[in-house]
Amino acid sequence: MIPAQHLILAAGPWTASLLATILPLLPIDLGFSPLAGDFLVFQNPHGLTNSSLSAVFLDSIVGHKLEFVGWNDKTIWVCAQANSSAILPEPGSFHKPDPNMISELMAYANRFINPAHGYHGQKNPLELRVVNKGRAFRPSTKSGLPIIAAVPRTKLTHGWRSDASDDKLSGIFVCSGHGPHGIVLGMGTGKIMSDLVLGQEPEVDISQFGLKFKAHSEHRFHP
User: Fold this and answer.
1) Are 132 and 198 found together in one domain?
2) Which of 58, 76, 195, 212 is deepest in the core (most CB within 10 A)?
3) Which of 113, 138, 163 is where one domain is finished?
4) pTM for the predicted model, two decimal places
């Protein structure tokens, strides 16, 4: 056991299952709906330039999400629409990508990275070398909004403690559900969470990112 005054639950798509494991009687519904996204990583067939570090979105061309992202490690990542029906695996397990989606991504790569006539007047198409492929699960919610909130003490005691009030925090916080935008929103979210932990008012309105509680629970337990 590790003693602590504050606990932040931020376990990505597994946040809901973690919450249910450590606080099984807590009447909170996170409304999670994890999304699985398959991806392919190619070796960039061109020399690395300043324009290699870019993101290209082709949604309007193919009719659904399709992204190519070039990185300074000479790789190009490609991903398409997410799968909302995939089953979330156990933490630490390997997530196998959908073979059909991988084939589709390969076809898109050959279409947009490696056209039949090559680049810059080349007569032969460029060879695309796959260096990695996989599946990633995003911590998404049914509402599409992240959860950035503190658990009120009353939700832990269920009214059992007479000194429990909504303005007294339990020391437990939830921070998850950012979908595919976790890295982009990470710094701002970290600032908000630090304000909550320190008992300070966040600089932005987070009322839309609160917790939803079940209407009724027969259980009572101590913090």
Assistant:
1) no
2) 76
3) 138
4) 0.77
pLDDT of 163-190, one tens digit each? Answer: 544 455 678 999 999 998 888 899 999 9
Domain assignment of residue 193, given as a range: 7-33+141-209
Same domain, 152 and 86: no
The structural domain count of the chain equals: 2
Residues 132 and 163 occupy one common structural domain: no
HEC sequence for 173-196: EEEECCHHHHHHHHHHHHHHHHHH
- Say yes or no to pLDDT of 105 above 80: yes
Query: Among 80, 112, 138, which residue terminates a domain?
Result: 138
Question: Taken in order 84, 89, 93, 98, is the CA torsion positive or negative?
Answer: negative
Q: How far is CA 31 from CA 19, 144, 163, 212, in A?
A: 12, 10, 30, 8
For residue 174, count other CB atoms closer than 10 A to its CB.
26
How many Cβ atoms sit within 10 Å of the Cβ of residue 21? 9
Contact 106, 64 (CB under 8 A): no
Give the span between the Cα atoms of 52 and 196, in whole angstroms: 39
